[in-house]
Amino acid sequence: xxxxxxxxxxxxxxxxYSFTQIDLGMTxxxxxxxxxxxxxxxxxxxFNRSLSTVLFISILSAYFLAYIGVLWGIQKRKISxxxxxxxIIVTAGILVFSYPAFSYDFFNYLFTAKTVLVYHKNPYLxxxxxxxxxxxxxSFMHWTHLPSAYTPLWxxxxxxxxxxxxxxxxxxxxxxxxxxxxxxxxxxxxxGKILERVDREYMYIGMASFAFNPLIIIESLVSSHNDIVxxxxxxxxxxxxxxxxxxxxxxxxxxxxxxxxxTIFLIPSFMTGWKRNTxxxxxxxxxxxxxxxxxxxxxxxxxxxxxxxxxxxxxxVCIISYGVSIGLLLRYAPFLYYGNWDPPVGEIKMWVMWxxxxxxxxxxxxxxxxxxxxxxx
Length: 377
Fold this sequence. Notes:
Layout: H1 2-18, H2 32-47, H3 49-75, H4 81-95, H5 105-117, H6 152-163, H7 169-198, H8 203-211, H9 214-222, H10 227-242, H11 246-260, H12 267-271, H13 276-291, H14 305-309, H15 315-330, H16 332-338, H17 345-376
Helix pairs in contact: 1-3, 1-4, 2-3, 3-8, 3-16, 5-6, 6-7, 7-8, 7-10, 10-11, 15-17, 16-17
């Protein structure tokens, strides 16, 4: 139970830290007591940036150390599946109430739904700025000069949580975050079902390597990027393929592609029988293709982690994923400290990203060489 308590404390710390990033133009609730508390959190995030950065790095470090500990504990059978699931549920149950600290996209998701349900407009034909002077959300939104960049299927997914929020901002926020939590849970279950058939011994390690990855926790449960929904559908497409339900598998893969397009790179894997190594290779190709066109963003790694979790015996790959996850999340630190993306933030971002990745690559190569030397004797 200690691991459950640990992850409860970590989730609570991350929940509280997320409130330091509440936009200065936003009021979460009209309750006067909360407004005073909110200002205290915002003071740390916006006016005591050195403390904010230290807190962020400390929470991040604790999560990555706990991640190593939980994987070791599961491998040594010191952590049961029940305990693992309790830690997952506690983490998700707390962070569903977090503020989407590192994502402005989240509010664009909500505003797209609002455009459809409240303003009865086509979000591809209007831009949020057209509602200036009418809608108070524009005081904290970004990308207000652009029409919706999201697929019709994703917009459809956002409509029910918006509708059942009944116009209350916190209910709208928590409702959509609950969708992300559901996708996170279903992805974990799907990974377990796949590994139960192909590598039962390492099933729980694979599930934990996804569930407790700090990047997955932050980008899916806190920032709540819709990539997690895309990946949940893709993982379950594999599950149904294994069950010989090919049409359902194809439908789920199509829905995944319709959610955010990136899983189109999995079509060759579907055609060749969903081999685990093939899936990882093709999604990595897709990941690299995107990187050649735009700046790397930390939540893009959500596309890769599920497939690394499906090959839990490949420790060298898992170590590289660990390093990439650290590096991508550390890219937030310079912004948290400086409060902008101006120089020298760009250069610092590159250093804090590539150093952990380089270290992980070296460790991975050394371990691979040692394994080959041992196997050759």
